[in-house]
Write a structure and sequence with these properties.
Length: about 400
């Protein structure tokens, strides 16, 4: 059993999903038969939203195994095109795809191999300006090949409370680890704990400069895919706080422990120009939002509302998409799909009644809260969203009101 809860939680798996991979399909029977896995874990995979940064030597095998494993939604971020030199190790691509954008070519492979998987193509370079695309995902896979991108991934994921599965390869050596700034039980670490600052000039060598052993990419990439499955399902022990290094030339593996760097937090905050959406009670653009509501606070408020306590009325607003709500939600909520991010439409709300917004982890809920606050609503955000509710042991629908 894992010491971390699954990223996608539900007490029940839909018997007949309207879309996405069917957990009960014979296709996934070998996974379902694993001890401690079963239909529940496969169902979590079918509802997971994973974004892979880089469709190269590491991203290619990650995408292949996640698609084959039945991950519900795969986002692919890459601004490069297929080059002949890629064919040595990036088995998603063939000679006929030379010059084709990698993100598009990778998406075509996924759709051909498993049409039940939803693929989102992000044919762009990940930067601070484009990192908002992380808002729609549960987990990030960093298969990039530059320190600059690794820092952008790390900071953007930390800002959103998302775990990151990271890997690197060079020559005959590879590394894999799991970073999660918001991990429970004080276990949080991220990429800046491993590399507090970029290395000296000349050390950021790509495989184009120094070469890379082709099968090593598959070895490291498949290990990264395994970490994704463990995090999503809660089966197994992820590499959080551990870095595994493989020396393919020597045929050896070794493990190193990773702990929070003492001055890392101050350094990370200084590096993030945008607001920190994980900070309770954050104020943005002159709009005041009340202090975040914790899972325990929400449970108390739901109980008081259910008991009819005078003055305890409030609206719990879920701004996630319908499939997310159907899979797991907090009982007694009101659904407003995409409000604050992709639409301005919301249910009719009484300005005299306080509102608590929630989404998967917080960013979408905070965007909705900003709109409501600008209209004069007393609004707060559920800290940590549905994940925070689950981590607190409340379950997907534990409270009624």
């Amino acid at each position: 059993m894992s010491s971390l809860p699954p990223l996608v939680s539900s007490d029940a798996i839909p018997a007949a999903p309207e879309s996405g991979p069917d957990p009960s399909s014979i296709r996934y029977s070998r996974s379902v038969r694993l001890p401690g896995f079963g239909l529940a874990a496969q169902g979590r995979l079918s509802h997971a939203r994973v974004v892979v940064v880089g469709a190269g030597g590491l991203g290619a095998p990650v995408i292949q195994y996640l698609a084959a494993s039945g991950v519900g939604t795969l986002g692919i971020v890459d601004d490069d095109a297929v080059d002949e030199s890629n064919l040595q190790r990036q088995l998603l691509f063939g000679p006929a795809q030379l010059g084709v954008p990698k993100a598009r070519a990778a998406a075509e492979w996924v759709r051909a191999q498993n049409p039940d998987v939803t693929v989102r193509v992000h044919a762009t370079r990940l930067t601070e300006a484009t990192a908002e695309l992380f808002d729609d995902y549960d987990l990030v896979v960093d298969g990039s090949d530059s320190f600059d991108t690794c820092y952008v991934v790390s900071d953007a994921a930390a800002e959103r409370g998302l775990p990151v599965v990271w890997g690197s390869v060079s020559r005959f050596d590879g590394q894999v680890s799991v970073f999660w700034d918001a991990a429970p039980d004080g276990r949080g670490v991220d990429y800046r704990d491993l590399h507090p600052s970029p290395p000296a000039s000349g050390w950021d060598e790509s495989c184009a400069d120094v070469g890379v052993l082709s099968p090593l990419c598959g070895l490291v990439g498949s290990t990264m895919a395994s970490e994704v499955v463990k995090l999503v399902t809660g089966v197994g022990e992820p590499l959080l706080g551990r870095v595994v290094t493989v020396d393919a030339a020597a045929g050896s593996w070794r493990e190193s422990r990773l702990r929070r760097a003492p001055d890392k937090e101050a350094r990370r905050r200084a590096s993030i120009p945008s607001r920190d959406v994980s900070t309770p009670g954050a104020e943005t653009a002159g709009v005041s939002i009340g202090a975040d509501v914790t899972a325990d606070d929400l449970a108390t408020r739901l109980a008081a509302r259910g008991a009819g306590t005078p003055g305890a009325d409030f609206v719990l607003l879920d701004v996630r998409e319908p499939d997310e709500h159907d899979f797991a939600h907090i009982a007694g909520d009101v659904v407003a799909p995409g409000f604050g991010t992709r639409t301005l439409q919301r249910p009719d709300l009484d300005r005299a009644v306080p509102v608590v917004t929630y989404c998967a982890r917080g960013p979408r809920a905070r965007a909705a809260a900003e709109l409501l606050a600008a209209e004069g609503y007393d609004v707060r955000v559920l800290h940590g969203g549905m994940l925070g509710w689950t981590l607190a042991g409340r379950g997907p629908a534990a409270a009624a009101g």
